[in-house]
Amino acid sequence: MPALRPVVFIGGILVLVLAATMAIPALVELWLEADHAPEYLPCVAVPAFLGCAAILASRGGPMKLGLREAYLLTTGLWVVLPLTAALPFMWTVPNLSLTDAYFEAVSGLTATGATVITGLDHLPPGVLLWRSMLQWVGGIGIVVMAIAVLPLLKVGGMQLMSRESSDTSDKILARPRELATWLLSIYLSLTLACAIAYGLAGMGGFDALNHAMTTVSTAGFSTRDASLGSFSAAAQWVSVVFMLAGAVPFLLYIQVVRGTWGFVPWSQIPPMLGVVVVGGLLLAWSAVLAGHDVMDAVRHGIFSVTSIITTTGYASYDWQSWGPFAAAMALVLMFCGGCTGSTTGGVKIFRWQILIRRFRITTQELIRPHRVVAQVYQGRPVGPEVVQGVMVLVLLVGGVTALTTVLLAATGLDLVTAFSAAASTVTNVGPALGSIAGPAGNFGPLPDTAKWILSFAMLLGRLELLTVLVMLDPDFWRR
Amino acid sequence: MPALRPVVFIGGILVLVLAATMAIPALVELWLEADHAPEYLPCVAVPAFLGCAAILASRGGPMKLGLREAYLLTTGLWVVLPLTAALPFMWTVPNLSLTDAYFEAVSGLTATGATVITGLDHLPPGVLLWRSMLQWVGGIGIVVMAIAVLPLLKVGGMQLMSRESSDTSDKILARPRELATWLLSIYLSLTLACAIAYGLAGMGGFDALNHAMTTVSTAGFSTRDASLGSFSAAAQWVSVVFMLAGAVPFLLYIQVVRGTWGFVPWSQIPPMLGVVVVGGLLLAWSAVLAGHDVMDAVRHGIFSVTSIITTTGYASYDWQSWGPFAAAMALVLMFCGGCTGSTTGGVKIFRWQILIRRFRITTQELIRPHRVVAQVYQGRPVGPEVVQGVMVLVLLVGGVTALTTVLLAATGLDLVTAFSAAASTVTNVGPALGSIAGPAGNFGPLPDTAKWILSFAMLLGRLELLTVLVMLDPDFWRR
Ligand SMILES: [K+]
Ligand SMILES: [K+]
């Protein structure tokens, strides 16, 4: 049985912190409208009380985190924090059930960006800001998790990204506080740059700030029902640039600013850009066939592919109207994902690189059985345990998507909606396909059961599945 | 460069043999109707001429088959033999293009059972028999390939089924001619028993014979547009029994008749029956919700699941009318497959067993990193190369299905038709979903490009993908 005390203690602290950040939307309400400010009082008070209780109940005693405690803490935080984050949705937005509020909060913190709310354009600014803040906080949480936690847990081949290497240049990464400061500075700088660029492209100040937060976190909530389709072509190109900036390994920025430091999986970037260009032009081609002007088609094509493979989920146009080829491409690209060590979800490009290389090695070994080919990734040896970890992860993504599809179909959703919603949440992209939850729709009309299934799928996907699934093993709970 | 001479020689012989078997439908035409008998003359003559030419051109010289020649021969046969088999479709059925004829022939020999022909009920008996014969011949070819060829090629973890084990009891398997005799006797006996059972269940002689041939080969062509839906409930239960009989490892029959002989992967059978019962009852439940009588629902449920997981593809009812849950279940079950060493397609149960066991071992290793768990299948050690082979195969099935879906969507097919047709051909099940090629429809209305893509998908699936894909590696063609 893993030790619960340190898990409850750290959880309590983070619930307190999250409750404190609710002061920001409350102040914005006071400043801009003042209509909803008082409603934030219970939203802060309830989790503050519960957080304090958790801290008091679990303080003292040994605080050492073992491997199983790390799994429990990681998963536990991503289940409990959305409960806290859901309160402003429940108590300041009219007609939002607990189910809807939890779905929206999970979608926020996991940076998925699927929404159940319609009429975003008329929502109070406090709630809009809270949605964006959740995604922004979630985004940096995802980067930290990918750089600091998952390589230790060795989930899905992430040990390849381990910082415990023999690199002598790896000094900064051994100092967690300095690493955290660097990551936060870079994240803040990117967000600020993005907001300014959006402003220059004609977005209003509030919209620019909100979209900057959900662009750099590749998360995808918008302040408009029509998402980036409400803004200028220039704003959409700004979005493309900063979605890609959020999809790049964050250690690369530290490396560029401070010189060489250890292992940065930069070789994911060229294939990512390649997919954006080739995929974007293919989509543009289908848009031209559907009657679009060539320049518009290229912009919407590049924008849509960037939005999907960085798992942001913004829409500049409902690409479903371009026909089945565009829809099929979008579905397949959902599984691509951006670079590991970034804010993106999905399978991620380094895993596809390892799989494709492995496939080539397999055919070579089949042709010449006595040949032995060593697999390498950016100079690091890729051992069989990494290859297997990658394969298990991709197979689990497929398996969980299939199971989720069947469960959603059992709630009455049609096949296209069920499969695409499953794929889009497991990969943390956001929008699905079909007439209900497509890029121009939202998840509001879905049955409650479907929303709970999808909330769980978002959590599973965000935690690279195995971080959650290990806990299904009875051994996890034994001594 | 692999040696072409032995490949052409063996190919020539088999083309000759296949041409000779066309005498059977010709004689049936003579005997029953005599209308179309003369049309078979060129169907026999053309391949006979070409086959003889191939044999004459390639005789003499060394005939040793290396590993690469084995790949080339296996794939080459499955590409060339359908060309021969397509001739009666082109030259005796009116309005069937080359594309349609080749699709039908590939679908026959690979035992897929997807059809482009409507109005089966009014087709001349010779062609109906030829369709069934192709599937029957294909079926035994598949068994021989799975027992004798694939374990040597080590494709998709099939080395686990190798007969080069240290089993001292493995004597018969070292004598290929005796093994072939046994397999053929068993196959004939099963077919005969099935035909008699169909007859007792009220089917006419010709229908009983044809369906027996396509049931035991889990192949799925029918003499009726409505498939098994045209026949009695008793006939449908007979079908369930013999589809399962064709989905069992054929070595098991030899073992039962002659005593213990080496490695029979029998442990696939209990999970297969489990899926039939559980899946069948779930489908029955959705049928009851759709308004069916309980007993009818159970029969159609069990029949449909058996038809799908044995990859037969018969329909007793259009299960799409039971709603999205039934459709999603059917789609997922397509990937299940029957037992290896049988006539079935799909991923096959032993691979799922290895993957599920491996998944459990992975979580155990994540929880306790210093534990080492050895994987075993029926007492045989499952080495990392087998695990990786299995994973590569399943990933390729997913990847090829996705790519095929995108290509089909580019020909204008809607998403549901494109994905389900891709899945159903790669797994050699047969019918797809949707309004065109669903269990009650057929592939006739699809564009020609789509039919060629699907023909290739059937071949890829039947040869467990890698047997074909190794040839894409430039190394295959080097010295
Ligand atoms: K997203
Ligand atoms: K079939």
From TrEMBL, chains A, B:
Transmembrane regions: 39-58, 70-91, 133-153, 179-201, 234-257, 269-290, 325-350, 390-410, 452-472
A GO term from the CC aspect: plasma membrane
Cellular localization per UniProt: Cell inner membrane; Cell membrane
Main location: membrane
Mode of membrane association: Multi-pass membrane protein
Keyword DNA repair: no
Role, per record: Low-affinity potassium transport system. Interacts with Trk system potassium uptake protein TrkA.
Protein family per UniProt: Belongs to the TrkH potassium transport family.
Protein's recorded name: Trk system potassium uptake protein
Organism listed in the record: Thalassobaculum fulvum
